[in-house]
Amino acid sequence: MKIIFQFSLVITFILLTAFSCGKKKKDPESLPAITQTGKGTFGCLIDGELWWPRHYSNSFMAPRVLSTMYEWNKENERILTINANYRGRNDNYPKEYLNMVINTDAIEEKVYLDVSFLGDSLARSGTIYTAMDYRGGPCSTYRSILGDNSWVLFSRFDTTAHIAAGTFSLNLLNMEDEMDTVKIRDGRFDLYF
């Protein structure tokens, strides 16, 4: 009986060590390369600062930081949704969410992003960016502004291989303070959906 107990302790220790330790990934120093192979990359510059989805956690149960969904909307149009999230090292660090909704009916040309999708209809494309300074702190929500600097350009949109790749640029306006804007530039993604 004692041997079984000791064996169980050793196995438990090995499992806990295997799931909690590992080589820490180094934060990137530049944007990911522009690729079209479904590498699972996403990055941009938000007001000139490098931004990429990440969650600082040693847990193997950390939430997903990047997800995509391809579905029909109420108007029977195909919509690609890209959700990218940043979570700081603990509750005292910022949390940021970038959610892009793209109508794929006009995929052959540049898709301009506005915020019409916030109403009753998902007929248009748009982006929401939410930034929270810290737990319980202020939260600012920005929406994309229709214009020459709010667009997505697909370099690959393959419904057979389920790969979406492209570049994007966004001008965003704070929904509660029209003087507060965010500029997203040099955006790129290469994702499976």
Description:
The protein is mostly beta strands. The protein has one domain (41-192). Helix content is 10%, strand content 44%. It is built from one helix and twelve strands, in the order αββββββββββββ. Strands 1, 2, 3, 4, 5, 6, 7, 8, 9, 10, 11 and 12 form a twelve-stranded mixed beta sheet that branches. β4 and β5 form a beta hairpin. It is globular, with a radius of gyration of 20 Å. The termini are far apart. The relative contact order is 0.18.
In summary, what is this structure?
It is built from one helix and twelve strands; from the N terminus they run H-E-E-E-E-E-E-E-E-E-E-E-E. It has 193 residues and is mainly beta.
Count of individual domains: 1
Major pleated sheet: 12 strands, mixed
Helix segment tally: 1
| Rg, nearest Å | 20 Å
Percent of residues in helical segments? under 10%
Q: How many strand segments?
A: 12
**Could you say which structural class the secondary elements and strand pairing correspond to?**
mainly beta
Please state the overall shape, judged from the principal axes of the Cα atoms.
Answer: globular
Could you give the distance between the termini?
50 Å
β-strand amount: 35-45%
- N-to-C SSE series? HEEEEEEEEEEEE
Give the rounded overall mean pLDDT.
76
Task: List low-confidence stretches.
Answer: 116-123
